[in-house]
């Protein structure tokens, strides 16, 4: 798992479309086809988990790429 630097993080969170924020989890939609920093393919959503423990309920089968920034876990979703 790689660690994302501050400039990459800022670029993502300012370029993506905010979607939801609740219970320590914030999601953004990738409406501009930014490449995933882990696999270089465009991703669908960015999920940022701020709390030490988070529970995610998935309604569909997804591939996930993961990185961290400070104390946050960043999940990049790829729909099938």
Characterise the protein shown here.
The protein has one helix at 6-15; strands spanning 2-3, 17-22, 25-29, 45-49, 62-69, 72-79. With 80 residues, the protein is mainly beta. It has one domain. A 6-stranded mixed beta sheet has the order 1-5-6-4-3-2, covered by helices on one side. Strand 2 (17-22) and strand 3 (25-29) form a beta hairpin. The radius of gyration is 12 Å and the shape is globular. It starts with a strand and ends with a strand.
List the helices and strands and how they pair.
Elements: E1 2-3, H1 6-15, E2 17-22, E3 25-29, E4 45-49, E5 62-69, E6 72-79
Parallel strand pairs: 1-5
Antiparallel strand pairs: 2-3, 3-4, 4-6, 5-6
SS elements, strand count: 6
Strand content: 35-45%
The helix/strand class is mainly beta
Encode the helix/strand succession as letters.
EHEEEEE
Specify the biggest β-sheet. Answer: 6 strands, mixed
Biggest sheet: strands side by side, in what order? 1-5-6-4-3-2
Low-pLDDT residue spans: none
Instruction: Estimate the mean pLDDT confidence.
Output: 89
DSSP summary: helix tally: 1
Helix content: 10-25%
Morphology = globular
Number of domain units: 1
Rg estimate, integer Å: 12 Å
Termini separation comes to: 22 Å
């Amino acid at each position: 798992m790689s660690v994302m630097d501050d400039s990459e993080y800022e670029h993502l969170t300012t370029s993506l479309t905010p979607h939801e924020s609740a219970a320590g989890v914030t999601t953004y939609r990738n409406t501009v086809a930014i490449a995933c920093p882990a696999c270089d393919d465009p991703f669908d959503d960015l999920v940022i988990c701020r709390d030490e423990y988070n529970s995610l309920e998935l309604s569909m089968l997804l591939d996930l790429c993961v990185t961290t920034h400070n104390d946050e876990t960043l999940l990049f979703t790829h729909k099938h």
